[in-house]
Amino acid sequence: MGIVDTMIHEAKVHNAKKVKEIYLKIGEMSNIDSQILVGAIEDLKDPNLMDDLKVYATIEKNRFKCRNCGREWNFSEIEKNIEKINVDGDTPLHYLPDSAQIFIECPYCGSHEFDMYGETGVVIEKIVLEVNE
User: Fold this and answer.
1) What is the pLDDT along the chain (133 residues), one digit of tens a residue?
2) Alpha helix (H) residue ranges in the chain
3) Which of 30, 57, 127, 133 could potentially form a cystine with 24 if both were Cys, beta carbons 3.0 to 4.6 Å apart?
4) Which domains does the chain have, with CATH numbers?
């Protein structure tokens, strides 16, 4: 179910007359451009139910902890080492974030055994509805 479909579903479930706000969290590793995502939601929204919808999107940083040496690092520290797969500069992680252990290694010891923290895709954190009384 897509983001707009989820808002419509929640409005129906809660007998809402308007969807006022939606809060999204985007995983840094997904390389999803938040402005493009917000624009797509604006283009696809239901004009009657979401006419004054406000969309809030934040990027959540991804962190890693090596199971071998115990060191920690951020995705931004190693992103440049991941091979790009097309002219747009996408990495395989944009399409397959669960494949991180194939494409990422600990920058300190080279291990592919690590724990990953933070979202890898898009998560709806909150939807604010105006309900019928």
Assistant:
1) 599 999 999 999 999 999 999 999 999 888 888 999 999 999 999 999 999 999 999 999 999 999 999 999 998 888 777 665 455 666 656 555 667 777 788 999 999 999 999 888 899 999 999 997 7
2) 3-13, 34-44, 75-78, 92-95, 100-103
3) 57
4) 1-61+118-133 (3.30.2320.50), 62-117 (no CATH)
